[in-house]
Each structure stands twice: as structure tokens, then as C-alpha cells.
Amino acid sequence: MTNELTPKFNPTEVEAGRYEKWLEADVFKPSGNPDAEPYSIVIPPPNVTGKLHLGHAWDTTLQDIIIRQKRMQGFDTLWLPGMDHAGIATQAKVAARLAEDGILPQDLGREKFLDKVWEWKDEYATTIKEQWGKMGISVDYSRERFTLDEGLSQAVRKVFVQLYNKGWIYRGEKLINWDPKAMTALSDIEVIHKEIDGAFYHITYQIEGSDEFVEIATTRPETFLGDTAVIVNEKDERYKHLVGKNVILPIINRVIPILTDDHADMEKGTGVVKITPAHDPNDFEVAMRHDLPMINMMNNDGTINENGGKYEGLDRFEARKQIVADLKELGQLVDIKPVRHEVGHSERTGVVVEPRLSTQWFVKMDELAKNAIANQTTEDAVEFYPPRFNDTFMQWMENVHDWVISRQLWWGHQIPAWYNEAGEMYVGEEAPEGEGWTQDEDVLDTWFSSALWPFSTMGWPDENSADFKRYFPTSTLVTGYDIIFFWVSRMIFQSLEFTGKSPFHNVLIHGLIRDEEGRKMSKSLGNGIDPMDVIEKYGADALRWFLSNGSAPGQDVRFSYDKMDAAWNFINKIWNVSRYILMNAEDVSADAVSSALTKVANKTAGNVTDRWILTRLNDTVERVTEQMDKFEFGVAGHILYNFIWDEFANWYLELTKEVMFGEDEAEKDITRAVLLHVLDQVLRLLHPIMPFFTEEIFEKLPNTSGSIVVAEYPKVRPEFNDDKASEGVAMLIELITAVRNIRAEVNTPLSKAVPMLIKSEHADFLNAVSPYISRFTNPSELTIAKDLAVPEQAMSAVITGAELYLPLAGLINIEEEIARLEKELAKWQKELDLVNKKLGNERFVANAKAEVVQKEKDKLADYQEKFDTVKARIAELKEN
Fold first, then answer.
1. pLDDT for 755 beyond 60
2. Burial grade of 161 (CB within 10 A; 0-12, 13-18, 19 or more)
3. pTM
């Protein structure tokens, strides 16, 4: 049989070669249909420092879900891939590789070192693309970009020059964050504050010309080498007599003044504060107010420089130890008090960051931030999902500082500024004419080019570029909440400045992936999970299902192998269902399916279960589409799971066996057609989330052609809606379930026939479906009537629209049955309380949709009927 599936789902076999076939067929490229609405995504570019981690897998999975669904819905979709050069991280990785061979970057020089970095980029970019293929992401590789390619480099230079000419980029000496390992400046958001064990060192400074001392406390005693003043509060009576005098710095014996400044807090410590302007941001501000000298006492690598006297050449932390020992020997170390405090660390290298006075390039942020804030009150506002992250974005923009954009690296966009021996500076998109010009050796912060990503990748600064005109602004960005400041914010203010538009309409924020204990994954904990290892074991579809169903937008998710097992089991369930259907419907044509569905819709053929499953399919399509549009992939997955596993596989498939094992061939043909149609629609609904195995099954269906990638996404078909069939089969399922539960309670297996009585206003319907009742409940006698005598000794159950009795004389204990019914009564009372509370909430009744309120009222009536019936049955049993 050509369309036969293997007996067991094997993800390795199903996924092998599938991605390459998609690429060869060009199914991922935009349709080019001018009448279709464009929908575009640019991939958050992973850096080229190594393999994809689970966070990237989450990003790409959610984006692929969105773009695959939109493609199937007929949008002209573009998903543009690319990668980030990641200046600090990549340079550090290449330097580390060279160090293994005893080679320093300085040994090679800038150009040869960059050749090595480009080799690294090519190697790891290939790896990342292979991993994208394993994930199944449907990008258009013909438009692939890299942040250092010529097109993007042109955009970077243009933006830099324009901002410089407006006065919004400037070069100056300011206190910045310095990474002594990478030996480069960092922006504020590249500093991670970690709580570590430290100490307050209490040191005395002698008053010049006196035997008097003042005591100061510091966590960084080595910085006293750069002190240029001490300050007290002018209101502090303890020190008024000292203002205007000098202190002598111990060991180095430099004389510095005692000044007054409000920065000195009388209630904190001793009230005397040392001022080290070149190594502390608050001290820098004090120095600016008092025109103090600023002494940098540290080299680029974190060692003490020539201003450190005898400590010159020592690492900053080694210098601390020696200084503390020397102060103790001099008797000027009063005390050391342990303290737990937050210290800034480099986000890239992990070392303690050094605040340091340095000449750097900065972006002036006031106007750019103001424009971004104002835009969020307009129709062009970026919509954050969940909305609370708009507040995160706004708070950062309202408190943003000037952005230091220069980095002391070789790998990156070299700053387009040139200097000559006359002290002149030229800033331009191209090098200046003439001799004697030397380009600034620094490069730009990686995020400077990444901030232009949504429009530079589309061909900007050529605003007539076809892609820019059609696909910008992009539709949706998917990213983690940890880079709202790094990337999302910068894309917004740069796009507004240079295109006059927001870079995207929507930003979907997801959380972090944690281990099973809720801990953040890290190398130090050894709890990281390689997504490629997960794919090797479970397949990409199972991983994608887990990632899309793990949490709500903005929430963290815990990785779990139990959940991966559940995902694989779900796929295997669908595989087995598909195999059963294909074995029983291998020769059904598309025309036959269409004809059969028309007859079912017109009620000229088919049975109530056929009409029920098509009604439930409609409801599933509507609800899944609604949740997908809201980026609630977890909710959509839950709806799909319940429909596929419970309603389609566990119920409809089983109910069809009454027909499939029967003699009516015409009825079998209808059932086969409905089975094929529902399976077809289920595969289409699942495809954006789990693309590989859905394609595998889809191409084996006897009534389909082409790739599921470009198949039409399911739509609600109103002609299939049949409320009576839906309500009827729901009652049938509830009845069968109730019988099974009663049998289980009294240990009566299904193989043993027992009498059954059903009292219902819907007796005609239940008699019509009695073959199903008999097949699934095995009654020795089945009595269904609108009115019948209730047996005294019987297990009973109340379902929607019917009362069920199983006379099991000798098998039941009346007292136990009353106790069971009283528990059931309490359950219905609880349901009544919940619904009454909701309907008693004026805000809910006033604001909810009319159909939602009516649904609650219908629940109330149903629960009340069940409550009343159970209560009456308890009374009957007690009387007898």
C-alpha cells in the first residue's frame, strides 16, 4: 500500500530529508501575490559564537508557528533570516581558540586576526543553519543577511553620520563601564549586577598638619590611589572645623582637600566620603560640581598604572590585598566588616566591571527617547504581548542615559571617523580624500547595527527597495523579555528616527527556559539542555510542541523530559489514528469526500456522530484560530489536544466502528469521507506547530496533493454546524462515561452484561442511538423511556438531559450509594455557587459578551437540574 504508515512513529525517519525537500520546492519564499496581504518577520539574529540554545529554539519555534499559519491563510509571507556578528563575544571566542596554540591577537595584527574571525563566522553560521534546518524553520534563505555584510554596513555608516551631524552622536570623556578582560567599554545594560560577598574597609586619613584623623569606609580600598578629595555635609557639626583643610592619603602621601557636598550623608557610615572621580559615577558628578582633577589609576587590563606608585603593574584585586596589608601595618586600617552587596559584572565575559573615566563615542538619548515615548500614544504604537511589557519599555525609555557606542575591539563596524596630525576630525560615510588620515580604531557596539535590523535587512537606505516598500514595517517580533532594553527599545527609536515608522506592529515576549527545579540554565550549574540532543531523541515536532505549549506569553517555562515524553506520545497517538484511517480509506477520492460532506451537511446522509464531529471541528477551528491570533499558543495547543485526543480519537473513531464493522456500504463511504476530512483538517491545524510529521501524513492522504506548507488553513464551515447533533452526542458520551464509572465503583467489568434503565425527555434520540449505547455499555436489558418506574436498589447517575439507573441488586450497599450521591450533590452545589457568584458580579454581566453570559446561565440551569435530581434520589433511597 503506497500510503501506508509505519506501525510506530519514528521521528528520525520522518524528519530526515524533509527540510531539504521544502527548500528545493521554494515553498518558504513569498508568494509574490500582489493581492495578498503582506506579513513579515525578521528573525532575531543569533550571534555566531556557537550553537543554538533552548532560548533561540523557543524564539524560532514561535516565529515559525506564526509564519507557517499566515502562509497557509494566504498572506504574502516573508520570514527573513540572518545572524549577528556579536562583537565582544565572537572576538573573545576566537581569541580563546588562538590562545590554545599560544597565539595572541596582537601577534597577528588587526587584518589577519579578522581573517580568523571570518573563518569562525563561516564555520558557526553553517552550524546554525544546520540547526535551523533540524528545527524546521521556514525562512527565505535567498534574503539571508549578516550584520557585517555590505548592505547593512552602508546603513550603519549612514545612521552614524546623520546622528553625528544632528549633534546626537558625540565624542567625549565620561565615566563608563569597563570590561578589563575584553578591554572594552560597555553600555549600562551590558552590566549584570550580582550579589557577592565583600567587605567595608574602614580607613583613617590624617588631617594635614595635625594629629587628627577622619575615618572613611569603602568596599574598594585600592581606589584610594585615585582620590582627589574627601567630602562632608555642610550641616554636619562634627566636621565643620575641618572644611577647607586637607587630608594626607596614606602610603602615597598625596594631599587632597576636604570639601562640602550634599552627596555626603550624615546618617550613613562616618559621614566622610572619599571622592575617586575616575572610578565611581557618583564621585564623577561631585568632581564635576567642584572642578576636581580626575586620576585614572588603572590600565585597560585591570592592573594598576603609573599613578599607583609601588603598586603599579599589580592586578586590581591583588593590589587590594597588598594595600589592605600595608594600611594594617601603618595602623590606618580600623576595621573590616563583611557585607553582602551587588557588584556589576560584564554580561559577556563575566568579570567584575570597572567604572572608569574614558574617552568614548556616545549617542545622546533625550530626543530619541522622547520620540519613542510619544509614539506609544499614537496609532503607530508597538503592541506588546503581554501588554505589561509596554510599561517595562516605557520605564526604561523615561530613565535612559546616553548610550556609549564605541568598543575597543577589532571585530565589528569600525567607527566612520578619521583624524589627522593637525588634530582635525572627519566623520563621513566614506574615507576623506587626501593623505594623512587615520580611521578611529574602535568599532561600534553590536546593538548599534542590530537596532537597524528590521529595515536595513529590507534594503534601506534605499527606500525604493521592493522589499522595504512591501514588507516594512514588519508584522511581528518574537523575543525574550531579557533583551527588551538591549534590542527591542533600540530598534524602536532608531526606526522612528530613520523611517518615521515603528519597526513592527507587534512584539510577542516570552520568558526564560529553566530547568525542572526552576533554576536558570547556566554552565556553572551544568543544567543546560542542548536542543539538538532533544531533537535527536524525540524529534523536532515534539520539541516544538513542548516549546509552544509550555507557558503563556511573557512567562518562564520549565524544561521537563516527562513533558517531552508526553509530546512524543501525543504525536504517536495521531500517527496511529492516521494509520487506522488510511488503512480503511485508501481509495477515497477528493470528489467522493466533497460529495459525502455535502450530503452530511444537507442531512441527506451520514449519522448523528458524523454531524457531531464536524460541528466540534468547526468549534475547534474557530477557537484555535482566535487563540493563535492572540499569540496564545499554549491555549490553542490545549484546545487542539483535547479535540484530537478526546473527541476525535477516543470517541469519534470508536463510535465509527459501529458503522465500519456493519453491513451498510453507503454509510461506510460517508464515515470514511468524514474521517479523512477531519484528519486532513487536524493536520493543517497542527502543521504550524509540528511541521514534519504532519507533512509526512498529509502527503499520504488519498485526496490531497502538494505540500501542506502551502495548503489552505482550515476555516469554519457554517453548513456543518448542527447544535442538536452536538448536544445529542455530548449526552451520549456523558451517559457512556457514567455507566463506565458506575461499573468501576462496584467492580463490574464491561464484559458482564447488566440491566440498564434511562429516563429522559430525549428518549426518542437515545433509542435512535441505542446501538452505540449497547456497544459501549453492554446492557443485558436496555430500557429508554420518558417516564419509567425507578428501581429501589440501583446505582444512579444524573447527566445532562437524562437519569441513568443500573439495578445491581446484591452488588450495592444503600448507605454507600447515599454517601456517593451526597458527594455528587456537594459537587453540584459547588458548581452552582461558582456560577451564581459569577452571574452575581455586576461587572462581569455588564462587560462580558452576551453569548458568554448566556453560556453561564445555561450552566446554572443544567447544574440546578442535576442538583435537584440527585437530591430527590437521595430522599428516595433514604425513604426506602
1. yes
2. middle
3. 0.84
